[in-house]
C-alpha cells in the first residue's frame, strides 16, 4: 500500500493518514443481550462491509453484562434487553447520556421444537403434562422477567415452580428447549426466527401479559471518542438496520 | 431468607457426600485393578480415568447434555425405565459429579494400593485368608491414608464443582442450585453481600478441610516412623 510513497513527504502523509481517527478503520466492542445474538451477527456483517470498521461482540444476559461493565469490562457499547440497566449506567456516570435510545422492542414466545406440542398454550401451561419448562433467570435476563410477569398474569407462576428450569441467559434457555431437555420454554421470538428448523410449536405471548421489552443501547464512557462505536449506534438507526431488526421479529420504535 | 441461604449449603453437602460414597464404591475396584493389572488396556483406562482432570468442564457438560438428553442413549434408557430425564435433576448432578471427580478418588487409592508390597498379601494367603479377607483386613488398613485422601479430595472437589453443573443443572432452588451456582447468581445480580457470605464460608471451609488433611497425613507419617 505504501509502495507508491517513496519520498519522505509520502511517508509522512501515510503516517498522518494512519493516525487520523476519522479515516482509520476502527474497532467497536459491543456487549449485547443474548436475545440479539443472531440479529447482531447479521447487522455486524452489513456494518463491516459498509464502513470498514470491525465489530467484536460479546453476548450474555443483560444483568451479567451490566455487572461486567460495572467492574470495568472493556466494552464500547452496551446493548441491553431492557431500559433499566442502560438507564442505571447513565445515572452512574458510566455512559454518554445523550446516546441512549431504544433499538428494538422484543417479543416473548412460548416455544417447543416439537410439532403440535400444544394446541392452546394457556391450557398446556395449566395441564402441565411436561416435565420441564425453561425460562431465563428473571434476576439477570429481561426475557426471564417478562416470562415471570406473563406467568403471574395467568396465575400460574407458583403452581409451575417445581417444573421451572432457569437458563443463565435467554441463549441457554433456548438451548435447553432446542436440545429437548426441557419440553418447552419462554424464549425470544427472534431466536425462533433464527432457528433453522421450520417445525415446532410457537405461541407469541400476548404483549399485554408482560411489560414491554424495550431494548436500549448506550455508548459507554470509555468510547466517547470512538468513531467506530458512534458509527455503530448511528447504523442501528438506519433504515437498512431497522429492516434487518424487524426481519428477526422485533418491533422498532422509530 | 434464612431458608434460601441454607438451601444451597445443604444441597451441596448432600451432593458431595453422595458423590463421595458412590465414588468410593466405584473407584476402589478400578484403582485396585489399575494398581495390580498388567493387562495392555491398563494405560488407556488410566488415561480415561484422568481425562476429567484435563478436559474443560464444558466438554463434560456438553456430552452429558447430549447423552442424558431425550435423544441420547442414556436419556432413552432412563425414560424407558420411567425415570424421566436426568438433566436438571439432583440425580443428574450426582452422575455428573461422579464422572467429574473420578480421578480424585482413583488416583490416591491407586497410589496407596501400589505401595502395598506383595509380601503382605502372600503372607496373608499362607495364613489361609481368602481374597475378600485379604482385601478387608490387609489392603484397607494398609491403604488407610489413601482412602482418607481420596474421600477428602473427592468431597472437596465436588463442592468446588461449577461449570458442569451450570450447564446441566438449570439453577433450580433446592434441586440443582448448589453453592457455587448460588454465588455466581448473586455476583451476576450484583448482590455482593450474599456473595461475600457464601464465598467467605467456602474459603474457611476449604481451608479447614486442607489443614485437617495435612494434619492427618502428617500424623500417620510420623506414626510410621515410631
Automatic annotation (TrEMBL), chain B:
Report membrane topology. Multi-pass membrane protein
InterPro entries in the cross-refs:
MetI-like (IPR000515), MetI-like_sf (IPR035906), ModB_ABC (IPR011867)
Q: What does this protein do?
A: Part of the binding-protein-dependent transport system for molybdenum; probably responsible for the translocation of the substrate across the membrane.
The name this protein goes by in its record: Molybdenum transport system permease
Keywords tagged on the record: Cell inner membrane, Cell membrane, Membrane, Molybdenum, Transmembrane, Transmembrane helix, Transport
- Annotated ranges, domain ABC transmembrane type-1: 9-215
- Keyword check for Membrane, yes or no: yes
Q: Which residues cross the membrane?
A: 15-35, 47-69, 81-102, 135-156, 195-216
Organism, as annotated = Marinobacter daepoensis
The source's domain of life comes to Bacteria
User: What compartments host this protein?
Assistant: Cell inner membrane; Cell membrane
Provide the primary localization: membrane
Task: Tell me if Hydrolase is a UniProt keyword of this record.
Answer: no
Spell out the family assignment given in the record's similarity comment. Answer: Belongs to the binding-protein-dependent transport system permease family. CysTW subfamily.
Pfam families with a match to the protein in the record = BPD_transp_1
Amino acid at each position: 500500500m505504501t509502495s507508491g510513497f517513496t519520498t519522505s513527504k509520502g511517508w509522512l502523509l501515510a503516517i498522518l493518514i494512519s493516525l487520523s481517527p476519522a479515516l482509520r478503520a476502527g474497532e467497536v466492542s459491543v456487549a449485547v443481550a443474548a436475545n440479539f445474538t443472531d440479529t447482531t451477527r447479521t447487522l455486524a456483517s452489513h456494518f463491516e462491509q459498509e464502513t470498514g470498521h470491525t465489530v467484536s461482540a460479546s453476548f450474555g444476559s443483560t444483568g451479567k453484562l451490566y455487572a461486567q461493565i460495572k467492574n470495568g469490562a472493556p466494552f464500547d457499547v452496551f446493548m441491553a434487553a431492557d431500559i433499566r440497566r442502560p438507564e442505571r449506567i447513565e445515572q452512574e456516570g458510566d455512559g454518554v447520556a445523550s446516546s441512549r435510545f431504544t433499538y428494538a422492542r422484543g417479543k416473548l414466545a412460548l416455544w417447543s421444537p416439537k410439532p403440535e406440542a400444544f394446541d392452546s398454550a394457556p391450557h398446556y401451561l395449566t395441564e402441565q403434562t411436561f416435565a420441564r419448562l425453561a425460562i431465563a433467570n428473571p434476576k439477570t435476563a429481561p426475557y426471564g422477567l417478562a416470562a415471570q410477569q406473563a406467568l403471574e398474569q395467568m396465575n400460574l407462576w407458583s403452581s409451575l415452580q417445581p417444573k421451572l428450569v432457569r437458563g443463565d441467559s435467554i441463549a441457554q434457555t433456548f438451548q435447553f428447549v432446542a436440545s429437548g431437555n426441557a419440553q418447552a420454554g419462554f424464549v425470544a421470538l427472534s431466536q425462533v426466527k433464527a432457528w433453522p428448523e421450520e417445525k415446532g410449536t410457537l405461541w407469541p405471548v400476548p404483549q399485554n401479559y408482560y411489560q414491554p421489552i424495550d431494548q436500549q443501547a448506550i455508548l459507554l464512557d470509555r468510547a466517547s471518542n470512538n468513531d467506530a462505536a458512534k458509527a455503530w449506534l448511528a447504523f442501528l438507526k438506519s433504515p437498512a438496520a431497522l429492516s434487518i431488526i424487524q426481519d428477526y421479529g422485533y418491533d422498532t420504535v422509530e | 431468607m434464612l431458608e434460601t441461604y441454607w438451601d444451597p449449603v445443604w444441597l451441596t453437602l448432600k451432593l458431595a457426600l453422595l458423590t463421595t460414597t458412590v465414588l468410593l464404591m466405584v473407584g476402589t475396584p478400578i484403582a485396585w485393578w489399575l494398581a495390580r493389572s498388567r493387562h495392555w488396556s491398563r494405560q488407556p483406562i488410566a488415561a480415561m480415568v484422568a481425562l476429567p482432570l484435563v478436559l474443560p468442564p464444558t466438554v463434560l457438560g456438553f456430552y452429558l447434555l447430549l447423552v442424558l438428553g431425550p435423544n441420547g442413549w442414556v436419556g432413552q434408557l432412563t425414560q424407558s425405565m420411567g425415570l424421566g430425564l436426568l438433566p436438571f435433576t439432583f440425580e443428574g448432578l450426582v452422575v455428573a459429579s461422579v464422572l467429574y471427580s473420578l480421578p480424585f478418588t482413583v488416583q490416591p487409592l491407586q497410589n496407596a494400593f501400589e505401595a502395598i508390597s506383595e509380601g503382605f498379601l502372600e503372607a496373608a494367603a499362607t495364613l489361609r485368608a481368602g481374597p475378600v479377607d485379604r482385601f478387608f483386613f490387609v489392603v484397607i488398613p494398609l491403604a488407610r491414608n489413601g482412602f482418607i485422601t481420596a474421600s477428602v479430595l473427592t468431597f472437596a472437589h465436588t463442592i468446588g464443582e461449577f461449570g458442569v453443573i451450570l450447564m446441566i443443572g438449570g439453577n433450580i432452588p433446592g434441586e440443582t442450585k448448589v453453592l457455587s451456582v448460588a454465588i455466581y447468581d448473586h455476583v451476576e445480580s450484583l448482590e455482593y453481600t450474599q456473595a461475600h457470605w457464601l464465598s467467605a464460608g467456602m474459603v474457611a471451609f476449604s481451608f479447614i478441610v486442607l489443614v485437617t488433611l495435612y494434619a492427618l497425613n502428617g500424623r500417620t507419617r510420623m506414626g510410621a516412623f515410631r
